[in-house]
Design a protein that fits this description.
Blueprint lengths: L2 H8 L3 H9 L7 E2 L5 E2 L2 H15 L4 H12 L5 H35 L9 H6 L3
Antiparallel strand pairs: 1-2
């Protein structure tokens, strides 16, 4: 199948498929005599794996490590679990940071009159005041 068909079936855009290939996240696929990419079922499995990993927030380096582990039939599941646990920890830190941002911004919004006056505690805070 061609890249458009692979994109439709896998749920990964053709642009991202080319990108994943260019950074080595996906193995190079076969090419036709005319130079067009030809995708097989195994390539779709890779793309779906990458798409699902991205949907869980894994970064490219983490996905590369997961793909390596996925292909290694002698892997220890502990390696996969450790990587996932580290990712959970990082997600929890990011969530806490975002909750702090929401709290700070909510406080600023609560102190802004939101009327015709020019003074605004939101802008004052953003300006470092």
């Amino acid at each position: 199948m061609n890249i458009g068909q692979a994109a439709k079936i896998s749920g990964v855009s053709a642009k991202m498929i080319r990108y994943y290939e260019s950074i080595g996240l996906m193995p190079e696929v076969e090419r036709s005599d005319g130079g067009y990419r030809i995708y097989q079922d195994r390539d779709l499995h890779w793309l779906r794996f990458i798409r699902r990993s991205r949907s869980l927030g894994f970064g490219m380096d983490e996905i590369a490590a997961l793909l390596t582990l996925w292909q290694d039939q002698s892997r220890a599941s502990q390696s996969v679990k450790t990587l996932a646990q580290e990712h959970i920890h990082n997600l929890e830190q990011r969530i806490a940071e975002m909750q702090g941002m929401v709290h700070s911004l909510r406080t600023l919004v609560d102190h802004c009159h939101g009327d015709q006056r020019p003074d605004c505690p939101i802008l004052t805070d953003l300006a470092g005041g």
